[in-house]
Amino acid sequence: MPPADVPGGTLTPPGYTSYPQQLIRSVPDPPAKGGEITIVTETLGTLPTPMDSNPVWQELNKRVGATLNINITPFADYNTKLPTILASEEMPDMLYLPNGFLVPGFPQFLEAKCADLTPFLSGDAVKDFPNLAAHPTNVWKTVVINNKIFGVGDPLPPFFWVHWHHAELLQQAGLQGPKSAADYKNIMQTLQKPNDGLFGIVAEAGYLYGYGVVNQLFTSFYGGANQWTVDGGKLTRLFEQEQFKAALVYARDLWAAGLYEPGSPGYNTLSARQAFVARKGVFRWDGNTTDIYHSFGAPSSLQPAPAIRLVPPFGAESGIQPTYPLFHGSFGTMVLKKATDDRIRELLSVLNLLASPFGTEEYQLIAYGIEGRDFTRSETGTPVLTDQGRADWIQRTFNAVVNPTPVYFDPLGTDYVPHVISVFKQYEAVGVPDPTVGFYSESNGKQGVIANQRFGDGITDIVVGRRPLGDLDSLLTDWRSNGGDQVRKEFEDAMSA
To answer: What pLDDT, in 10s, does the model give residues 385-417?
Structure first.
């Protein structure tokens, strides 16, 4: 990568305020030996133009040296399709397993059908694939099962769920950013205008989110753990901490004060995001990459003009150190079908090309396509997608094959990248990891899912007043006895082993 314009931190990726004018070719020679490489994956966007009529895809095939036969399924349908693929006798050369898709008998599946990549990617061996070797350490932890490397991670920054606000609203009212939980509530009450459709916070219901409690927005105010905390080999779930109860009390108070945007009970992440972009709320905790609210932008018709920016971490009150739940940094894992050593090296070399970093010809091809057809250049030399480029766009597909090492780049100006890196360094300073990452619990994908769902649904009911706060104790008892304690034991056993 070229030297960064804005240096990162230990975990915070570096940033660029201008697009490199001199690109390098990361992989000079095609790494594949011809033929076809079959890939099954998902996409978070619309399907790209098919390969036969997509010059970008065709050019990438030339760079790779083989035909990339990619079976692409929309994100919403992929988890339904995967079990059939896993049960099939025939594996593709590469199969994408999204983070959170828990395969029953996962270690057995890996041993039976997938290549053990340890000899190719551990120690100095990974230097044969320098773009993969550049992946952060926390990403590699996600692909180790039973002390073997069974895949290639899909890097994202460790700041996945992040805290946004409409900074222009605070600036217009002469307000500073929140410094405490009480301050946070007061800002919402000051800025809220229900008659104009503006509320304090846009959030989601559902057991994974719990109006900002289960997905760790409010628990971070109170210094809560990241899913689990470990002490002397013993695990405690975030749910079981006093910080969780304090966050639940706080969210219940915000709901009673009418500060949640009224559509929140029916929102999923996408619809809640759209409501926030339309400025129906001042604050939002959202799981996505940092450019979702800037490069793709909020409606220009809004006045004052939107300035969606990050909220630095703060403690609920004086003396409370906030935390930030660090994401383990991988959106999924690409596993490879068992094959000869030569074939495995070939496939890894292809992934190495696809992971070419910012500032390379390969990155530009994947991210923007072919100049003059798929993109033009702005006055500063930054690629700008054309309508054809948006149709051909294959970056969203390759985001679910393998990502390059993360960086921050803003094509619209020079102020945004320094802002996000500055705040993310503050997140990093109070960040806590999930200690169970890299360890496997079979029950986590079975009883654990059901137990978490029942618990999260109960928390949602408590926030909105359908159940009393005192029901938290019975929800915890139910969670422990219906899978939580078994998951805990399996993680503890794996960690001790």
So the answer is: 888 888 888 777 778 889 899 899 887 777 888
